[in-house]
Design goal:
Blueprint lengths: L6 H11 L1 H9 L3 H24 L5 H25 L4 H23 L9 H23 L6 H30 L21
């Protein structure tokens, strides 16, 4: 049986699939549908890790799919929002630098047959802050809800940028540790198929 065919990995693939509809709806001005796509993405992001840990369905493939889905989703959101809200461009630049650095580091580790490892809490925190800021801006635009002031949104943007930089630093330290590690747990093992039990 293929260990990689499980619910957590399917949820990660779902997050990849909803990126295109999100971009389409957002650029077409269908904000409600765009937010719906993002909610689906966020919920799947929350539950895939919980299910994987609870049912012991953690795989090396899943550990790569999860951050990949995070990066592509955040990238799509950041680019779409920067198109409509130029003040977001500095955050987008930080995001691009962070994600490009992480992708490069992951490629180096994969080339050396090392496991890049799963997403960490600081990466998830940066993602959550990113989503919260996005939702508040959309609420402002959609409902003209002035209770969410521009200063609050800008404050969240600054905090999100700081959290992204912090996550980048922490992931860089993890990269250095894994790169120079001889621990078997840091070796890449996709476990494409379980060994079949020999029939008596």
């Amino acid at each position: 049986m293929n260990k990689n065919i499980n619910v957590p990995n399917a949820l990660s693939v779902l997050r990849l699939l909803v990126i295109a509809p999100f971009v389409y709806f957002y650029l077409q001005g269908e904000i409600v549908w765009a937010v719906a796509m993002l909610v689906i993405s966020g919920l799947s992001d929350m539950f895939d890790g919980m299910i994987a840990r609870h049912f012991n369905q953690i795989t090396a493939l899943g550990q790569m799919l999860d951050p990949l889905a995070d990066k592509l989703t955040q990238g799509a959101v950041a680019i779409c929002m920067a198109i409509r809200y130029p003040p977001l461009i500095p955050v987008l630049i930080i995001f691009v630098v962070k994600e490009f650095s992480m992708i490069t580091a992951a490629c180096i580790l994969l080339k050396k047959k090392k496991n890049p490892g799963p997403s960490q809490w600081y990466g998830k925190a940066a993602t959550i802050m990113f989503y919260i800021t996005f939702i508040l801006i959309v609420i402002q635009e959609l409902f003209q809800f002035q209770a969410v002031s521009n200063s609050v949104v800008m404050g969240l943007l600054i905090l999100t940028a700081v959290m992204m930089l912090y996550a980048l630093l922490r992931y860089f330290l993890v990269f250095l540790r894994v790169l120079h590690s001889d621990d078997p747990k840091d070796r890449l093992n996709l476990e494409l198929k379980e060994k079949r039990l020999k029939k008596n």
